[in-house]
Structures are given as structure tokens and as C-alpha cells.
User: Which sequence fits this backbone?
């Protein structure tokens, strides 16, 4: 089974075509919905009393919510704006609200989870939380520039406590102070992570394990609407796929990265999680076949 | 057989690790050397009387030089400087010299060439030159930002006169005024090119044909020394491979793109064309196998 620890949020996003206000967002939301096509993920997260019932219902249909705390106060809010090319996002505002003093609790029956995904949370919280699981087969964490800038040592320490690190290219460079992504990955592996997955947005991703590099292109799309949540959907798909197979050999991890690329491609085709909420398993299968066709020679 | 029309130059390149002065360069030089691993390409180019004998010897060993004019005056000189990340190049100086009033002449026995590559020359010259070949099976051209900015209509006209356009991502965006690379390619195909290959540097390339997209990653390298000539080596490998097979079906063109990625990866590992001049066919074969391993899932 798979447990996901991360944020649930209400997002306000400006894209060149539309402004979304207080829509369902957060790293754990995207990762969880994406993973839910493969398993029923367990969620550890917090929302405020203002969290809309319809969003709660969406999560409840797809995820085990025993680990979702509902606190007095307001739900975490994020606000960001994309440029015309949709490749640059500026954070306009972050209101932590109930996330500020949240102490995550792992429900008793989550503790046997073999697969654990720690989203871009406070690295100290991630490092502490993973110790509460006593049967972990594969754990993976993400991080963001905010933690790299404010808690670099904690980020490095967190990497030692997991099997895999998933991180985007710019953050990998910021963290390791290297320009070359192979050098970035080697440094991160040197800190203790066995697997490193570097996400390159529209350019796909690189998976590193020992001296193996697996390079995979993104699923090419003509219409990108809102990139929010693509990286989280990528990571969620990886973890969901691995948990569904209950395997962690290299061939399965490579395949999980392909699913990551494909689920990320669905995420960016619509506003917020709307496309992820609309598609069916058959759509994913179809796109995996298209992806194979697009990359085979 | 394959004919290549393009520049031969003396390059002065500043990289973070070394300054190269008056080294062998030019689009046709890289494309020609790269293609020479597959066929013996015919060159149409011009140099001045100052062109070093040792460079002439290098070209003579690999290429048919009947189409190389040696004119009174100085060889075309290019000078550029890379930033620390090796991803941004600034042109410091361009001295056209003998290239300025060069009127390319196609030697009689070149005219039967089935494969013709027109490098980033003046688009009007390319459009005119291709009409002198009477047995063309597959022609491809490149272009650069200078022509897009100064002779846009001629660039578009040139695209109608060839089978394939190879262009880098930034130039494709500049030319088509689109952000999305699929949209860029569709516009270029709309102008008359059957195949469009968009080079994305370290992120690989995209091949477009009708409604097919073939996306291929770059060969991942830890050590990049000098990116000069990578794109030209890519195009040269494509054309050399196709000419050696004498085929232009989609599967063969996909394979030629893979060879393009691999030859481009050799080019960036050393200063100027030094690695391309050092490797053997067996090194290319080995890297193709590594590339397959790196991308298969």
C-alpha cells in the first residue's frame, strides 16, 4: 500500500487564458489523484473548516482519508501566475493557515505501508515522519526551492532517509550548485539517495541509479493550459504504479517514470486537476501506447 | 551520394575552460566530418588562401573537395563566447571575408547527388542551388536567427524547396512566433516542408512528419566541453546515414535522428571538431547501443 504525505490547498492561478480562484490544489492532491488510478492511496494532510465539501468528496472517492486532519481555521492557500509561454511561474502569495502548526499523525494502519511518498513538505517533518513506518519497501521525497534556500542541511539529511529523490532540474542545480544534471544526480546519490529522478518539465525526465541513466522524453502536447501539479502528478503516478506492482526493480521503476510522464501530460492539459478527474484508466493505457510509438525507433 | 553546401571557417571560441583561436570550424565542416562516417560527402564551400594546409588535409581525407573554392583573401572567421553553463553563446565577431561575394558552383558530377544538405547559408542561395541538382531524393536545410531576422520571406520560400527542415527550438519559435514546438512544426510544414526536425540541444530533438511526432532524448553526458558544431554534426549524421542506406522511409529517418543525437554528443565532448576527428566507427556503434539502453523501457 501507498501513503502520501503532502499539502492540500486552495489554489488561485493566473494563466494566460484564465484566472482560477480557490480551486482544488496542493502537492498531495495531485500526487494522490494521479496515484489513485493504480491503487487507493492513503493521505496524510490537513485542511481547514472552510475546505469545500465538493473537494472533500472528490478526495474521499479516490483516497483513504483517515490521515486527513480537519482543523479550525483556513485551508492552506497558494497563489501563482504563469507567463505567456507557461514555462515561468511566479508565486504571488502563500498563506500557510492551518498548515503552519500542523503536526502530521500517521494513523495506525498506515504504518505498514510499503510505499511512502513525502511531497515537498518541511524536510525535518519528512525525515521524522518516515521513521514512523515500519515496513517500507520504497520511499521517495520531493523538495522545493524554499526549503533549499532556508533549510539546505535538512534537505540533504532527508535525502539520506529515503530510497529515491524526485526533484526538478532547476532545484537540483540550486541545491547542488552544479550545472550538469548528471553531476547534480551524482551529488544527490552521494548524499544517500539510491535513485534520483530529475524532472525537466516539457523536456521529460532523467532517472539515475548506480551508473545507469534512463532518459525519457515528455509526452509531446500541442495544447498546454495550466502546468500546475504536473510534477506532483508525475511523482504520484510513479509511486502508484510501483505500489500496484509491489516491485522496485529497475525495469519497473523505469516503467513508473513513463507513467509519470504520461500522467504529467494529462495534468497540464486542463486547469487544476480537471483532466485528471475526467480521464479513465483506458485513456492512460491509450496514451502509454501513443508514448511508445512516439519514442520507439 | 550526398552533397553538402555550407561554410568552412576559422573559429575563435571562448569556453569557460579554454580559448580556441582560429580552429577549424563552420557548419559544412562539422556536417561533413560527421557525415563522413557513413559516406564520402561532396562539399560545396569556400576558403581563403590563408586556410591552413593541415585543415585542408583533414577535409581532403574525409570529403570530396571538387566543390571547394580557394579564393584570394581570408577565410570566413567566426568568434563566439559561451557562458559558464555552456548553454548560452554570444557572437563576438563575424568576418565574412571570402564568403561575402561567394557564388557557389555545383561541379558537374555532384549534380546527380540524391541527398543534398543545405546548411545555414543565405536562404536565397540555398533555394537557387537546390535547382541545380536533377536527381534529388531527399534534401534538407537549416537556418539561423540572422536570416530569420533579415530575410524571413526567403527562409519561408526556401522551406518550400526542400523535403526537410532542421532547425533549433529557439529559431523555430522566432520564425513562427509560436511558443509550442508542435505548433512551430505545423506552421513550418504548412509552408511546404514534409519533415521538420527541431533540435533542442541537451534535451534532444523532435521529428515531425504528417501527424507523427518522434521525440528523442539527447545522449546524456556528464562532461560537455564545447557545444560548437553540435547541431551541424547532428544534421550531417542524419544526411550521411540516410545517404548510406539510400532510403527515406520514416523508420530510417527516425534512425537517422538517433545517429544525429549520438554524433552531436561526440561533438560537444571536445573542443572544435577534435572528438569527431578522433573517434572510429566502432565508437559510434558502441554509443548507439548505450543510447538504446539509456532510452529503452
Assistant:
Amino acid at each position: 500500500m501507498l501513503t502520501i504525505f503532502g499539502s492540500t490547498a486552495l489554489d488561485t492561478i493566473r494563466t494566460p487564458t484564465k484566472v482560477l480562484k480557490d480551486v482544488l490544489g496542493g502537492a498531495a492532491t495531485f500526487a494522490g489523484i494521479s496515484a489513485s488510478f493504480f491503487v487507493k492511496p492513503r493521505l496524510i494532510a490537513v485542511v481547514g473548516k472552510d475546505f469545500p465539501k465538493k473537494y472533500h468528496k472528490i478526495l474521499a472517492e479516490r483516497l483513504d482519508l483517515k490521515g486527513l486532519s480537519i482543523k479550525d481555521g483556513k485551508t492552506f492557500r497558494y497563489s501563482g501566475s504563469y507567463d505567456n509561454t507557461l514555462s515561468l511561474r511566479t508565486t504571488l502569495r502563500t498563506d500557510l493557515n492551518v498548515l503552519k502548526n500542523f503536526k502530521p499523525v500517521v494513523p495506525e494502519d498506515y504504518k505498514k505501508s510499503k510505499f511512502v511518498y513525502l511531497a515537498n513538505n518541511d524536510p525535518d517533518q519528512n525525515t521524522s515522519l518516515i521513521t514512523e513506518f515500519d515496513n517500507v519497501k520504497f520511499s521517495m521525497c520531493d523538495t522545493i526551492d524554499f526549503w533549499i534556500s532556508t533549510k539546505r542541511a535538512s534537505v540533504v539529511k532527508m535525502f539520506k532517509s529515503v530510497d529515491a529523490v524526485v526533484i526538478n532540474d532547476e532545484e537540483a542545480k540550486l541545491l547542488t550548485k552544479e550545472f550538469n544534471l548528471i553531476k547534480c544526480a551524482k551529488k544527490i546519490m552521494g548524499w544517500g539517495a539510491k535513485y534520483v529522478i530529475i524532472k525537466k518539465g516539457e523536456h521529460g525526465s532523467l532517472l539515475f541509479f548506480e551508473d545507469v541513466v534512463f532518459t525519457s522524453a515528455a509526452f509531446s502536447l500541442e495544447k498546454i493550459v495550466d502546468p500546475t501539479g504536473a510534477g506532483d502528478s508525475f511523482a504520484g503516478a510513479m509511486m502508484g504504479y510501483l505500489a500496484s506492482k509491489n516491485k522496485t526493480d529497475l525495469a519497473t521503476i523505469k516503467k513508473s517514470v513513463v507513467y509519470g510522464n504520461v500522467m504529467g501530460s494529462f495534468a497540464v492539459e486542463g486547469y487544476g486537476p480537471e483532466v485528471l478527474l475526467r480521464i479513465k484508466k483506458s485513456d492512460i493505457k491509450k496514451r502509454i501506447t501513443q508514448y511508445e510509438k512516439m519514442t520507439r525507433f
